[in-house]
Structures are given as C-alpha cells and as structure tokens.
Amino acid sequence: MSDPDYVVQTVALSKRYGRKLALDRLDLQIPRGRIHAIVGANGAGKSTLFRVLLGFLPPSAGTAHILGRDSQRLTPADRGRIGFVNEEHTLPGWVRVDAVVRMQRRLYPRWNEGAFAEVIGHYHVLPEQRVGQLSRGERAGLNLALALAQSPELLVLDEPTLGLDVVAKRAFLESLMYSSAAERCTVIYCSHQMEEIERVADNLIILERGQLKNMSTPEDFCARVTHWVADVPFKGPEPAAVPGLLQVQRLDGLYHYLVLDQDETFAEFLRSCGARSVQSMPVGLDRAVNGFLAKNHAAPAAA
Ligand SMILES: Nc1ncnc2c1ncn2[C@@H]1O[C@H](COP(=O)(O)OP(=O)(O)OP(=O)(O)O)[C@@H](O)[C@H]1O
Predict the structure, then answer these.
(1) Considering the chain, what percentage of its residues have pLDDT values greater than 90?
(2) In a shared domain, residues 61 and 97
(3) d(Cα 171, Cα 83) in Å, to the nearest integer?
(4) CB–CB of 14/59 below 8 Å?
(5) 301: which residues sit within 8 A by CB, 6+ positions away?
(6) All residues at 6 or more sequence positions from 146 whose CB lies less than 8 Å from its CB, including other chains
(7) Cα radius of gyration rounded to whole Å, the chain
(8) Interface pTM (ipTM) of the complex?
(9) Domain extent for 61
(10) How far apart are the CA of 12 and the centre of ligand 1, in A?
(11) Is residue 303 scored above 70 in pLDDT?
(12) How many CB atoms are closer than 10 A to CB 302?
C-alpha cells in the first residue's frame, strides 16, 4: 500500500546485479514537499535507487512506489509528473534549443512557459544554439529549466552539477533555489558536494551499501558528530576502545577524535585514558558526513 503523503516509499527493496547487492532490503519513506538530499559513498546504491524508482530497472525483491504509483507500472502520465535531471544531460547535441522547447511543450500538458523563462534566464542560452554548442553549465541549466517547466510534482536531480566549475555550480543552485516552480514541488537531490547539500537540503538521507543510515535535518546529523582534541600522553587509547570513533588523527602532539553520538561522558573517557586537556568543537556538514561515510566505506564488506 502507498501513502499519498510520501513521494517515495520503498519496502524491503533489494536490487541485485549478479552477485552484487546494490540495494539491501531498503525501507525508505520520503515525505511530500521540500528538498531532500541523498548522499552516500560511491557505489552506495543511489543511482540504482533512482533507476528502480523511475521504472528503468525492476527490483529483485520488495516494492517501490513513486508519487503513490508502483514504479514498475508507471504510465506516460505518471512520468509527466516527475522531472528528472542527471549528470549526463542526455539531449542530442544536434538539436536546437528552440526545437527542444517546442517538443517538450507538446509533450507535457502542464508545460509552464514562465517557469522555463525564469530558470533559463540565469544562463546566456540563445534559442538558435544547438545543444552540443552549449557549455556544460548551460546544458545543466537547460535541463533544469525543461524539467521545471513540466510543472512536476517531484523533481529528481541525480548529481546534476557533476563536472561543473564553481561558477556554473553556483548558477545551477541559484536557478534552482530561486525558481518558484521548484518551490511548488518536492525535490530529491543526490550529490557528493556537501556545500551544495548544506545550502539547499531540508532533509539529509544517507545511504550506505544499499541501506538507510540516516534521515534527519542536516543540522541534527551534524549535532551527532563531534570533534574532540585531547592532550593524551604516549599512544592514546586503542582505536577499537574509543566509543563511536569515526576518525583519529595526531597533529602537533594532540589527538583529534571525530566521534558519533557521544556526549560529555566522552571527555571523561579521554581523561580516564590520561588526557590532560580535553576540548570539544562542533563540526560542519562536510566533515560530519565524510567522516561518517569514510569509516564504513573503508571497512571490509560483510560476506
Ligand atoms: N549494471 C550493473 N551491473 C553490475 N553492477 C552494477 C551495475 N550498476 C551498478 N552496479 C553496482 O551496484 C552498486 C551500486 O551502484 P550505484 O551506481 O547505484 O551507486 P551510486 O551510489 O550511484 O554510486 P556513485 O556515487 O559512484 O554514482 C555498485 O557496487 C556498483 O558496482
């Protein structure tokens, strides 16, 4: 059964490619509205999840619903309710921008010229240009403008800024953030760029080896990760004995611990290991997510 309050609902969803398990009994519910970021290390299963949700691949087990519809039974009308932009920006290079727009206008009954103009206005794209002549950043902007002009209920962005320079990334984010069409739909944004996630996301979903590891606001996730600096003599405690350890580094004679889900009792632990001074400091999203992902990414996979 699917619930209309959720744009995405998966129940025990698994996807196997031969011996490789890309999605592992994933239970995921993404509520309607706002911007949801999906992050995970390379190979965590993000693109596979999108392919299954959009009906491009069948699940190996479990169920997947998107906008309340079974992903395996999406009709053209259902697809019209979903905008999709990925890093490949796959429009054919020979076609003119105005021809693409004419085609999409015919294809999508809810085509919104104003939404297209609002987004494409951030880019210096001329109607007579061929898609292949556009810069990568302009092509990304054109794809975003086309997807939003569909008036989608759900916009899925799979690493839309991959390969773009800093200026083009900023232009992409701003055209998304200031678009009134984007405000009216639910956005699922998948990226490795934490500064982008930090700017746009209301909800942070972390996938690891095809399983859900976090679903909270980015701020709440950051609050789970703390950085401690301690003046511990000699070798310090064995890493395996440090509670919640994500990373440890020794810099200028001081130990830096990045830990998960620890409170003030962690200071007592460090003191019990001989620390003379202990200091804690907050952590930004980039450090928190990357520390979290790096720990388990480096660990050997269970058989
Ligand atoms: N067509 C395929 N055949 C075999 N294995 C695949 C195939 N596509 C993906 N995989 C494997 O499934 C796992 C998940 O891949 P997926 O592309 O979904 O990850 P991802 O999170 O999108 O990674 P990235 O951030 O690198 O894009 C990986 O281990 C990958 O090797």
Answers:
(1) 72
(2) yes
(3) 19
(4) yes
(5) 209
(6) 100, 101, 104, 116
(7) 22
(8) 0.96
(9) 6-216
(10) 18
(11) no
(12) 5
